[in-house]
Amino acid sequence: MEIEFIKTSPTQNMTILVKTPVPREKQLALAERLIAYDSVYAEQAGYIEEPENPRAAKRLQMMAGEFCGNASLSLAAWLARKDGLAVGETREYLLEVSGADGLVPCEITKEAYGFFGRAKMPLPERIEERAFRLEGEELRLTAVVFEGITHVIVPAELWKEDAERKAETAVRLWTEALPDGAAFGLLLLDENEYTLKPLVYLKGISMIWERGCGSGTAAVGAYLAWKNRKAVSVGLQQPGGKMRAEAGYQDGVISALYIAGHISIVAEGTAFLEG
């Protein structure tokens, strides 16, 4: 099987966008093969489809039907490249994206090397403190719940040098309380240094320490606005670089949510899959 693809690097959250039409029921299994180490290799994959809404430039269908801000920015950057944007030029693309109600606006600016993008994110369904248990310890942590993914904010200093092991144990355990098919994110956040280490778990599919997480960035922005009861704009240093979160706050609720970061298109070609 020959699959035409684009590979992008939105803050090193390596993403494959599949151009070849693939039936929805086969997309997850094919994406798992594409993102494998012995294939094209990436953290996630999505499919470029024709949209139902005539206002949308394209549709992005993610491998597990989730919403992804970084993949949305990647698709918009690829469209900007096709349109031949000049350095310094900015254009907005409206996209249909799985897991999102309504169209997703992505603003893309051509830079000397790659693109800078800003995407409007879905608002969280709720933000709440929850009780979690791990290795005999009860923890009170904040959960930011989006459609399709729940992110839990864990203070970076909580588990100290044992943080990665405990995080990987926690996501396996805590995801059992989620609906089938929902993703789980655990975000190691240093609120003083504004650093973020995001771990994303898709039950039965993958566990990845992402180098730049779009939904995690949005979750932190929403959490900080909720906690401080005011609008926030913050740059979060992640392993792959810095992403910005912007959250509006009005009448006690999150009123708007955006992420922004750099996107590179690193490859485009054909993948050869056996079977």
Report on this structure:
A hairpin with a 4-residue loop joins strand 11 (183-190) and strand 12 (195-202). It is built from 4 helices and 16 strands. The longest helix has 15 residues, at 69-83. With 275 residues, it is of the alpha+beta class. Helix content is 19%, strand content 47%. The protein has helices at residues 24-34, 69-83, 163-174, 214-228, and strands spanning 2-10, 15-18, 44-49, 58-62, 90-97, 104-110, 115-120, 126-134, 137-146, 149-155, 183-190, 195-202, 206-209, 232-238, 241-250, 253-272. The model has no long low-confidence stretch (mean pLDDT 95). 45% of the residues are buried.
Which helices and strands appear, and what pairs or packs with what?
Layout: E1 2-10, E2 15-18, H1 24-34, E3 44-49, E4 58-62, H2 69-83, E5 90-97, E6 104-110, E7 115-120, E8 126-134, E9 137-146, E10 149-155, H3 163-174, E11 183-190, E12 195-202, E13 206-209, H4 214-228, E14 232-238, E15 241-250, E16 253-272
Parallel strand pairs: 2-3, 4-5, 10-11
Antiparallel strand pairs: 1-2, 1-16, 3-4, 5-6, 6-7, 7-16, 8-9, 9-10, 11-12, 12-13, 14-15, 15-16
Please report the number of helical segments.
Answer: 4
Structural class: alpha+beta
Number of strands: 16
Percent strand equals over 45%
**Which whole number gives the mean pLDDT?**
95
| Shape annotation | globular
What brief labels describe this structure?
275 residues; alpha+beta; 8-stranded mixed β-barrel; 6-stranded mixed sheet; 4 helices; globular
